[in-house]
């Protein structure tokens, strides 16, 4: 099963999840450093230390990527390294990313940077974080710093990773940093994140670079398609998860039904004249992160803070399917369907799968890690991606999540997503069976049938 010529094969990480070294070379706190210190927020009381010690082992890690035959590395840049406290530029922080990018290029690996993977400087949270419009302008300043520092070496820039998580898990459910359960703040955060994307996009495009953003997408399936209540919950979830981002980015408007649903939370009050034009700046690529489907019912479920602002009654009934350690059902067909959906419902834009992967406990067999389940997950999803290409989708690349085991946010280090195993005591890296399998895919540009 061959992929189109030039298809980009990569692996992804994010700064806070892998770098460690949280207090060296001038880095200051992000909202995740502060969030991790609050007992109960992260399983096991885990923090950004040691991460995978990527900050200190970056040379070795890039050499490992080269050995695996990867064509691209998706990483994120830590705002609190580059402009600590969102203040003056920190040369030492810039130097780390320059060195990373230079080393990648020496090995012929395309750098695929994301400007924001959730590590907002805590100093900005102290003045309201993403609920404060000013944060969007501060993000554009930071973007300008890094684009000008690295611009000669980078073709494509991604502004944000999964603004849905940043806004709704961070400000409504409160299960991600900054841990606020304030639905009004969450819907304001959605708009300010999109505005931040647009403002940074102006900087990126003015430098003749390619502009992208990454969204996490799920097919939303009503449990009972004959139930008007289930269908309405599915509409609302699709609106909050997908359309509230895709519509303004690709079409220049917010979905009218969702604007109405979010009226009690003050959504339209934060939108100013001219904002949608900024947000709708032409996109050169759209990143899709895919893990699972949402199968949803209007039967009441768990109470308490929820990311689904305004949706009072909902639950996610279990279906008969294998699940990963995250409790997420393995649903490869859903990947074909989200890709087709963007392709069919929106103006055409080149697509990349910027994350896809699975957490499984690793089985050690001698010195090796025989992650048959993760290998199977990747293979079934690559088949699903191939099916989308065969149906006409302009899919240009795939990044597995993740290059190596790392800090899985509120789940700490217990959940392992890596195709490379990390021993957190010794920081020894061991490519798993999935890495060997994926390496063969990347080198041959095909999945063996
Ligand atoms: C994404 N949810 O996060 C992120 O981009 C990665 O940093 C992360 O490690 C990966 O997926 C695996 O979780 C998500 O609860 C975290 O819906 C949580 C959710 C979705 C995405």
UniProtKB/TrEMBL annotation:
Active-site residues annotated for this sequence: 162 (proton donor), 355 (nucleophile)
Pfam families linked to this entry: Glyco_hydro_1
Residues that bind substrate: 17, 117, 161, 291, 401, 408-409
Catalytic activity: Hydrolysis of terminal, non-reducing beta-D-glucosyl residues with release of beta-D-glucose
Enzyme Commission number, as recorded: 3.2.1.21
GO MF term list: beta-glucosidase activity
PROSITE patterns: GLYCOSYL_HYDROL_F1_1 (PS00572), GLYCOSYL_HYDROL_F1_2 (PS00653)
Class of the enzyme per the UniProt entry, highest EC level: hydrolase
InterPro entries reported for this sequence: GH, GH_1_N_CS, Glyco_hydro_1, Glyco_hydro_1_AS, Glyco_hydro_1_beta-glucosidase
Keyword Protease (UniProt): no
GO biological process: cellulose catabolic process
Name this polypeptide is given: Beta-glucosidase
Originating organism: Lentzea alba
């Amino acid at each position: 099963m061959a992929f189109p010529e030039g298809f980009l094969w990569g692996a992804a990480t994010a700064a806070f999840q892998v770098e460690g070294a949280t207090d060296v070379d001038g880095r200051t706190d992000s909202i995740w450093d502060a969030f991790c210190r609050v007992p109960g927020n992260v399983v096991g009381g885990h923090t950004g230390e040691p991460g995978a010690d990527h900050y200190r082992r970056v040379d070795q890690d890039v050499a490992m990527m080269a050995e695996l035959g990867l064509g691209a590395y998706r990483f994120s840049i830590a705002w609190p390294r580059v402009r600590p406290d969102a203040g003056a530029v920190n040369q030492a922080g810039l130097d780390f990313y320059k060195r990373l990018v230079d080393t990648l290029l020496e090995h012929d690996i395309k750098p695929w940077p994301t400007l924001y993977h959730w590590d907002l400087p805590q100093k900005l949270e102290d003045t309201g974080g993403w609920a404060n419009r000013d944060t969007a302008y501060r993000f554009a300043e930071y973007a300008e710093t890094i684009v000008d520092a690295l611009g000669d070496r980078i073709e494509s820039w991604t502004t944000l990773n999964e603004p849905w998580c940043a806004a709704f898990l961070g400000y409504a459910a409160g299960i991600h940093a900054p841990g606020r359960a304030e639905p009004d703040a969450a819907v304001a955060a959605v708009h300010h994140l999109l505005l931040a994307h647009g403002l940074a996009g102006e900087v990126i495009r003015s430098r003749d670079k390619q502009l992208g953003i990454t969204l996490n997408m799920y097919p939303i399936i009503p449990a009972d398609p004959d139930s008007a209540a289930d269908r309405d919950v599915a509409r609302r979830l699709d609106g909050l998860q997908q359309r509230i981002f895709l519509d303004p980015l690709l079409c220049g408007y917010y979905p009218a039904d969702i604007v109405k649903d979010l009226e009690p939370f003050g959504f339209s009050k934060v939108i100013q004249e001219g904002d949608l034009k900024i947000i709708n700046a032409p996109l050169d690529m759209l990143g899709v992160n895919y893990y699972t489907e949402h199968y949803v019912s209007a039967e009441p479920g768990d109470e308490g803070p929820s990311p689904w602002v305004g949706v009072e009654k909902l639950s996610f009934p279990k279906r008969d399917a294998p699940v990963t350690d995250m409790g997420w059902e393995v649903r490869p067909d859903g990947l074909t369907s989200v890709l087709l959906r963007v392709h069919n419902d929106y103006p055409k834009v080149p697509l990349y799968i910027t994350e896809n992967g699975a957490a499984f406990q690793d089985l050690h067999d001698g010195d090796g890690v025989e992650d048959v389940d993760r290998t199977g997950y990747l293979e079934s999803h690559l088949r699903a991606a191939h099916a989308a290409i065969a149906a006409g989708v302009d899919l240009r690349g795939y990044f597995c999540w993740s290059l190596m085991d790392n800090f899985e946010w509120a789940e700490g280090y217990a959940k392992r997503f890596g195709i490379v195993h990390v021993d957190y005591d010794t920081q020894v890296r061991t490519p798993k069976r999935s890495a060997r399998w994926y390496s063969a895919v990347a080198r041959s540009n095909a999945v063996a049938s």
